[in-house]
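Q&A log
Question type: sequence-to-structure
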Amino acid sequence: MNKTIRELAVELTIQTTAICDNIKGRAVFVNQLLRSCSSIGANSSEAKYAQSTPDFINKFEIALKECYETDYWLEILFKVGSIDENTYKNLSNKCSKIRKLLIASITTAKEKENQQK
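Response status: OK
Response body:
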C-alpha cells in the first residue's frame, strides 16, 4: 500500500521528535527542525480542505519548502555530531520521498488548473 504524503509526514515527525528528545545542547537547531518537520504534515493536511486549486497548490508548496528546510536542519545536526549517519540518511531519505510526492502533486494540480483555463 502506498502511503499518503500526510501519513509519511506524520511518520517523519514522530521519528524526528523521538530523536530530538535525546539531543542536548542544540536547542535552537532542534526547535527549528521540529517546527519545519511538523509543518510538512500540517500544510499537507490543510491542503485536503483547500478552498480552491490555487489554495491547494499553495499549501503543498509551503509543505515542500518546509521539507527542504527539514532536510537542512537534519544535515546541520549530522554535521555537528548530534545525530549519527544512519539516522541522518534514514530521515533525509524520508524527506526526499515526501518531496518527490509533493512535487508530483503540485505539478499535476498546476496542469489540471491550466487545462481548466
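Response note: The chain has a mean pLDDT of 95.
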